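seq as requested:
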Amino acid sequence: MEKPVKNAVDIATVKRYLPWLVAIALFMEHLNATILNTAVPAIAASLEVTPLSLKAVVSCYVLSLAVGIPVSGWMADRFGTRRIFAAAVGIFTFASILCGLAQNVPMLVAARILQGIGAAMMLPVGRLAIVRTFPKSELLAAMNFVIIPALIGPLLGPTIGGLIVYWLPWQAIFFVNVPVGVIALWLIHRHMPDYRSDDPPPLDIIGLVLFGCGIALLSWVLEIFGEHYLDATLIGILIGLSLTLLAAYGLHARQHIYPLLQLALFKTRTFRVAVAGGFITRLGLGGMPFLLPLLYQVGLGLPAWQSGLLLMPAAAAAMFMKVISIRLLKQFGYRSVLIVNTLLIGTTIMLFATVNSSTAIGWIIALSLAQGLFNSLQYSSMNSMAYADVSSEQASMASTIASSLQQLSISFGLAFASIIAGLYLGDSPQSDRIALTNALHNAFLTLGGLTIISSLSFWSLRKNDGDNVSRGMEENGSAG
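struct tokens:
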């Protein structure tokens, strides 16, 4: 694997700026993904369509991510991390401009598809650059820094989106990406390392079609789950078809010399537990951004911007955990931290069932702080441990697989939370505040219980698993 940094000074410079560079790009992506939901009514009014007709604007972005992520690792190996990451940021920024200039729904959908293609390459290629730049002993601090945007973007998105559409035209939600994208491109030109494979394998076209179609169909079904025009039978058929395509890919991957995704990586215990085992844990985490705004806005009767403010303590706590998580993992190890922290996450989710219109604001803030602390530790632990026993040659593939399953877990978590809340609500109208609040409380109890059960997946870890990542680091880390 060719590395462009030739001396200690260059390596130190890259290490100093690379986490910032990847974090800025990911913050732009994650903020944009959540900020749009708040602006849908304003966009619908401006384009003179119904809000429901804009569902495609959200779902097409998810489909682009699902299809684009699996091929991003191969592209980075073939063309280099600097070129592909720059292309990803450039495409995303240009597509943001097109979104803001859209005059109708088809133009907006086309621009969002292009935006999703750019976003699909950001996360896996950014992670790949981090993994190949930092040694295992420094990886936790670097990953810790980069994961913060993924935590605070969805929390700040509703608040920022609400403020923008209140004071400015809806196009501003896309135009805010432009200066951020320009800054990111300048940093890429100056500080992005250019890793590439000396002998990249041929692209697995058949695998791309099977896996891409399977995961895109499954992501789409999860995204539009619950729409009135799709009955349970059709949903079941589509899910069955998507699982069949994914199973066909599994058979294909076993026989192909250079599969799109090397499933043999799951034989590595730390990678398997962090990625596959952590998938179940992410369901509870992924459902909270959907359920909490409903609780605050419907259950407590708060306006959207105040609801968003109640989510901000979690963002502040997540940033604080960046510092202490390094010490926690160094002292107690991944196995103990993941088991205990998963139990704490589940308990915190269940405690949100105590929140109603008479709950003291201090208790809500305390729960939000706890949620931010535990979620941040969980993501930092799972994301860094995934690469503990992965070689440099496997880093690209590991990043692609981890990113693909992470994207699927986001879609599945939102859909699962929606399903659970809908089942508890039954035939009661969503306008019934008491009925909806009770349904949300039961959903919190269910998701929290599932998260607690998911802690069992981390019991298969050994005491010293991940020590090459968590032990022997500087107390203050190395990624800023």
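Residues 249 and 337 are 34 Å apart (CA to CA).
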